[in-house]
Write a structure and sequence with these properties.
The chain is of the alpha+beta class. The chain has 2 domains: 225 residues, P-loop containing nucleotide triphosphate hydrolases (Rossmann fold, 3-Layer(aba) Sandwich); 107 residues, OB fold (Dihydrolipoamide Acetyltransferase, E2P) (Beta Barrel). Helices cover 24% and strands 35% of the residues. The chain contains 8 helices and 20 strands. Strand 12 and strand 13 form a beta hairpin. The longest helix is centred in the middle third of the chain and has 18 residues. The model has no long low-confidence stretch (mean pLDDT 93). Bound molecules: adenosine-5'-triphosphate.
């Protein structure tokens, strides 16, 4: 018996001879919240549609609890989907929309009523049963779509940018609600988004994709703190990404200066990419630091200032700090060894 609920093995997909998925391998455990994250067109939705059975892979295999389900029709899979467009039935009220899947299964009226009421409670819409779909806000409609997808108790729920149409505040509220719901029900969620913050907030694991390939799979902390390459570092959060040369273990050269770092295992003099997060650079007086530079711009971002400093070697550093500076001010920068993360080039 496999420990995985969903396994994708060497999945490739071509549309009109254009390869949109290239050797995708993913293992998902029961009750996991896994997010497919990447820019538009990278193949997230296609991957989800293959899992849901709405699309067939050109090659490779899909397993559900250890059984190959490549050719199983969607309705036979214990997998349900929530799309960005709610796809509710406008002529039915809320109750009938949620009850739809159960009515098809010819379940008794009392049981249906009990289950719909449980679902309405779960999505925080108790008492909304008789309301028309058109009288609901976008957020409420999406809650109904989620209730409808969950009522038949699928083992896996696929969610394709389900919060994409909502405003930022509501989206943040719904992110937490969805996460709580997933924990409470113990259902595996596979979630698609291009929003890195959403992925970091909600997921147990994130799968970062670009151009039909997986770039990295890991926990939000792994992906943020240990990005595998320049693409992941750039896509997840704001970063300083600089080229350098790994002189030896724990020593990296950036534009004529040698920095201590915690990385090892590179070839001697290997060309590398280096990422330093803006919140990991400290600003001090020029005389207190090895790196000296001049503040070029200061932008207030609400919780911090974003400052750009050009150092003596013409390297520009983006820095997030709560301390105010002025353009033209001479400053020193402190970058501790654990703030420097060295990555292989072109992985
Ligand atoms: N039915 C189709 N026929 C032809 N090409 C398609 C089809 N569906 C998707 N594609 C192409 O496959 C690629 C991947 O698309 P997909 O929708 O999976 O990306 P995505 O990462 O989900 O993007 P988005 O965030 O914009 O939805 C794109 O280049 C897209 O144009």
């Amino acid at each position: 018996m496999t420990q995985y609920i969903i396994e994708l093995k060497n999945i490739c997909k071509e549309f009109e001879e254009k390869k949109v998925l290239n050797d995708i391998n993913i293992n998902i455990k029961p009750k996991e919240f896994v997010t497919l994250l990447g820019p538009s067109g990278c193949g997230k939705t296609t991957t989800l549609r293959i899992i849901g059975g709405f699309e067939n892979a050109t090659s490779g295999d899909l397993y559900f609890e250890g059984t190959k389900i490549n050719n199983m029709p969607p309705y036979k899979r214990q997998i349900n989907t929530v799309f960005q467009k709610y796809a509710l039935f406008p002529h039915m009220n809320v109750f009938d929309n949620i009850a739809f899947g159960l009515k098809i299964k010819k379940i008794s009226k009392e049981k249906i009523k009990e289950k719909v009421e449980y679902m309405l409670k779960l999505v925080n819409l108790e008492g909304f049963g008789k309301r028309k779909i058109s009288s609901l806000s976008g957020g409420q409609q999406q809650r109904i779509a989620i209730a409808r997808a969950l009522i038949c108790e699928p083992k896996v729920l696929l969610l394709d940018e389900p919060l994409g149409a909502l405003d930022l505040k509501l989206r943040k509220e719904m992110q937490l609600e969805l996460k709580n719901m997933q924990k409470k029900l113990g259902i595996t969620f596979i979630y698609v988004t291009h929003d890195q913050e959403e992925a970091l907030t909600m997921s147990d694991r994130i799968i970062v994709m670009s151009e039909g390939k997986i770039q990295q799979i890991g926990t939000p902390e792994d992906i943020y703190n240990e990005p595998k390459n320049k693409f992941v570092a750039d896509f997840i959060g704001e970063s300083n990404i600089i080229e350098g040369i790994m002189l030896s273990d724990y020593k990296v050269k950036i534009e004529n200066r040698v920095f201590e770092c915690l990385d090892k295992g590179f070839e001697k003099n290997e060309e590398v990419d280096i990422v330093v997060r803006p919140e990991d650079i400290q600003i001090t007086k020029p005389e207190n630091a090895k790196i000296k530079g001049v503040v070029k711009t200061v932008v207030f971002k609400g919780v911090h200032y974003e400052i750009v400093v050009e150092d003596e070697e013409k390297v520009e550093w983006i820095i997030h700090t709560i301390h105010m500076s002025k353009a033209g001010e001479k400053v020193g920068l402190i970058i501790e060894p654990d703030a420097i993360h060295v990555m292989k080039k072109g992985v």
